[in-house]
């Protein structure tokens, strides 16, 4: 992802790449000496929070594609940003525009269906499960259903093997598949008696994330504080 972002920024009109960092580099010192205004983080969950803290301390806006953030870690970022007014951090579980639209459509449709479940499918080198995209999707669906007064999906399961019904994300079941040959894929399944709506998005190449990353780089400075989800900086009506 890092090298793909480097190429995308270099090719984007009006953007200039001033530094490219790797594991072990001093993030704060590097971005400060390079004069960076925005930094993009695609690392791993064990490193990303420390990177973001260093960027905020340096007064550099951050666009983050690393998943695995906990609520506590996000609260820590919010508290730090409160001491650095004007600095923006945008954390997005998925930068593919189609994936963002799928999440948005699913949240809008969820109130009209009795049942909803999420299936995410990724390559086996992915370190977190379920994916950040699937968690974000399920959270948005759960919030929309709660606001509309929709109850939980029916489920009469009384005996099960551990994990057979997937993870429970705010009451929405999320299933993770890890298979060689996949890149990043998600299905949202919504059902009523006699009908099913399936919303699916497929990323076949990391290039699919680059339009969203470049857009986030361009607009993050206009959104001080913490923004979670690319949908909040797109005009989705």
**Helix percentage range:** 25-40%
> Can you give the mean pLDDT?
95
Query: Judging by the overall fold, what is the CATH architecture of the largest domain?
Result: 3-Layer(aba) Sandwich
Task: Look up the CATH topology of the largest domain.
Answer: Rossmann fold
Short description:
The chain is of the alpha/beta class and 237 residues long.
Verbal overview:
This is 4-hydroxy-tetrahydrodipicolinate reductase. One of its GO terms (molecular function) is 4-hydroxy-tetrahydrodipicolinate reductase. Pathway: Amino-acid biosynthesis; L-lysine biosynthesis via DAP pathway; (S)-tetrahydrodipicolinate from L-aspartate: step 4/4. There is one protein chain. This protein has 237 residues and is α/β, with parallel strands linked by helices. The protein folds into 2 domains: 117 residues, 3-Layer(aba) Sandwich (Rossmann fold); 101 residues, Dihydrodipicolinate Reductase, domain 2. The strands form 2 sheets. Strands 5-6-4-7-8 form a 5-stranded mixed β-sheet. A 4-stranded parallel β-sheet has the order 1-2-3-9, with helices on both faces. A hairpin with a 2-residue loop joins strand 7 and strand 8.
């Amino acid at each position: 992802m890092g090298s793909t972002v480097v190429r995308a920024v270099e090719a984007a009109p009006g953007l200039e790449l001033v530094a490219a960092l790797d594991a072990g580099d001093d993030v704060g010192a590097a971005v400060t000496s390079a004069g960076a205004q925005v930094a993009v983080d695609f690392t791993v969950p064990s490193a990303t929070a420390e990177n973001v803290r260093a960027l905020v301390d340096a007064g550099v806006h951050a666009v983050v594609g690393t998943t695995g953030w906990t609520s506590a870690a996000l609260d820590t970022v919010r508290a730090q940003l409160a001491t650095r007014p004007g600095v923006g951090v945008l954390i997005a579980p998925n930068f593919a525009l189609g994936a963002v639209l799928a999440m948005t459509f699913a949240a809008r449709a969820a109130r009209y269906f009795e049942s909803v479940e999420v299936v995410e499918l990724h390559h086996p080198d992915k370190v977190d499960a379920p994916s950040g995209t699937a968690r974000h999707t399920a959270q948005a669906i759960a919030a929309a259903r709660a606001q509309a007064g929709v109850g939980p999906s029916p489920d009469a399961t009384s005996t099960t093997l551990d994990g057979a019904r997937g993870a429970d994300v705010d009451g929405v079941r999320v299933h993770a598949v890890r298979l060689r040959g996949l890149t990043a894929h998600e299905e949202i399944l919504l059902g009523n008696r006699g009908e099913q709506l399936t919303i699916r998005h497929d990323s076949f190449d990391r290039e699919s994330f680059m339009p969203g990353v470049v857009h986030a780089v361009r607009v993050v400075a206009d959104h001080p504080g913490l923004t979670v989800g690319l949908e909040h900086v797109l005009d989705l009506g």
